[in-house]
Amino acid sequence: MGRTWHVLGVGSLGSLWACRLARAGVPVQLVLRDAQRLQAYQAAGGLELSEPGRCERYPIAAQTVADTGQIHRLLLACKAYDAVDAIKGVIPRLAPGAQVVLLQNGMGSQQAVAALLGHCRCLFASSTEGAFRTADFKVVFAGQGFTWLGAADPSASPDNSGLLADLAGAGIPHQWTPDILARLWRKLALNCAINPLTVLYDCRNGGLVEHGCEVATLCAELAQVLESCGQADAARGLHEEVERVIQATAANYSSMHQDVSQGRRTEIDYLLGYVCDAAARQGCDVPQLRRLRARLVAFLQRKG
To answer: Quick check: pTM over 0.85?
Structure first.
């Protein structure tokens, strides 16, 4: 039996990973925030995963954050704005050298969590997989994607403890990269070019073909920010990739649109907020990105 994966954050991607790992026979333990949440999970009978032509429930073992068992391998899959508080709840349980996979949108939360975990090995993850929740403990696999993993230190060696083998066995397409930060910056830029506009125009990703000039302008400014932050590779061909993503995911609603439509807090501070702050630090003028951030903030405030 391999090392147990503890999964903290049973949103869309956390649930998706937990179900696929459990289906492959990998030991999985969900970590829920309190007894009330645990009771609701037990009443649901497990996590339900819907895929094309298949819907199954997985009665994965679960516990609360307050449990005392040691954690050697943790998938932190909560929202970026919850990441620091969530990890603080389990720090006493993390064994020396524990592996912590950080699966958050945007940038900033990963570094903040890693700063708290000097005794652990933090792995950053960037995923293009599509999933969404239809209800508590029910997730739909919306689109096959890919996940890159790596350490903040580009000289760090690939994991050899079985973690990557677990992902392969679970059918989670992935690759180790020595330059995970470039992947995170690229994903950040893609999200900033697409997600806020889908919220403001209340459309699926494909609806942005009607706003091509605005998308192109944002991509030019995003590329400028990436280059000023030493991420020239992440900036290369950005506009073309954004257009490809819009076409490939035309029928999908962005994660930010889903959050807004369901009355959930967005990750704007770790997306547009992070980019605009980085631009300011570099003395990079990005008027369209700043205007977009202000429009989105005003819109979200009106929404409450």
So the answer is: yes
